[in-house]
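Appendix B. Chain record.
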Amino acid sequence: MAGLTIDNLPASEEEIDFSDLEARFAIPEQEETLENVVVVDNLPIVEPEKEEKLIKLLKKTLGKHGKVKEDGIHMPKDNVGATTKSKGYAFVELETPKDAQAVIRNLNGFPLSKAHVLLVNPFMDVEKFTELEDRYQAPPAEAFAEHEHLRSWVGDEFGRDQFVMYAGNDVNVYWNETMQAADEIVSRTNWTEAYVQWSPLGSYMVTMHPQGLVLWGGPSWNKLVRFIHLGVRVAEFSPSERYLVTMSQEPISLEKVVQKLGADEQHQNPYTNDDEGNLICIWDVRTGTLLRSFAPPVGADGTAAKAGWPQFKWSPSE
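Structure tokens predicted for this chain:
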């Protein structure tokens, strides 16, 4: 209480002003969040003597994708006669929300055993599910949106092929004419920042950028799929265009990817801690999903070997 002397002592405790002490020793309010907590369902139902073993297995499995807090696995139990049994699910507290996202992305649908396929969801979804209506209401039917045919050029009435030219900053796609000048289909400036290439069946045209590569196609030449792979240098499709392999000379860095994407596009980050330091990525072409990444080749002395291209050989039927 500032300015307190023998002559102005308060008459009672209620009159004492503690505001200066409260301000000085105030504990900053911390925003409570449960975004680092996940619910792991479809676990084996075990008795107390097997619980510790299951927790160790669960911690080892989750620990490959995110750091589990000390004593961060909580497994509810049911009373069954004179003993107890686990309920088949667990709440797991990880160090950060980022760890939780990595665990969900990598372990939802993971076969822990032949009889137990894990279902991993954010704990924050529990509140969302409790607010669902008791009676099912069918969602409104979405209007059918017709997609352009990716190989529409096959139906050209003159049976012409297409070819692409990249000169200066301009990318131009033409109809290939035999008896006259090529007929331009589309021209765009700064469409690519390295080079362009076709997919094996001509469904896609690839443009290369520092952030990754983009697939384009259809009569309107719209952007179809974007693949985030910083510093990508080369790309190769599988024979039927189901998969795409990319390679960069820059090892994957989660920190760099986050910085490059910016705050508004973090949901597009396809990588987890398991991908850190890898150079080669395999993608699903239709969905843009990262299927797996690989570390660079290592020589006999343990140092990175010179990587050739292509790195993989596809079977004819994939």
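Further analysis of this model is presented in Appendix C.
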